[in-house]
Design goal:
This protein is of the alpha+beta class. The protein has helices at residues 12-22, 26-30, 34-40, 55-60, 62-69, 100-112, and strands at residues 42-44, 51-53, 82-83, 116-118, 134-137. The protein has one domain.
Amino acid sequence: MAVTETESVLTERRVEKVFNRCLLRNEETSRTGKEAFFAIVVMADDITFNVIFHPERIEEHREEIIAMLNELPGAFKTSSGWSLLNARNDKYGRRWTGIHQRIKQLFQLGIAIGRVRTTTPREMCPMPIGRTPYYAIVDDV
């Protein structure tokens, strides 16, 4: 998807749209046997909840997902990552969302393409009150 000069790369609407396009649909699971089903999906194993994406659609949106991840602050590109709460602003300090679900969706898309990992140990989940998961963008996207 091409981006115009006046259009922001990272928006709530764009993340939601890509996320929903990439999800595995119910009708796609009913047409395959159990073994085939597990062979064709991409799991985004997140510490908060898991989602299942269709591999071809994830691949179709790979560059767009990378472009959106590149709009996040540089602290996400460190080995320790940064709090999910800090992802509500882009690298320019502009708030692109106030909806945590959109942030999680962006990170799950990143996990699915191998460009994001959680840095919060699974044994810390569920998260204590006041704590949020940390995510790191990897491979210098």
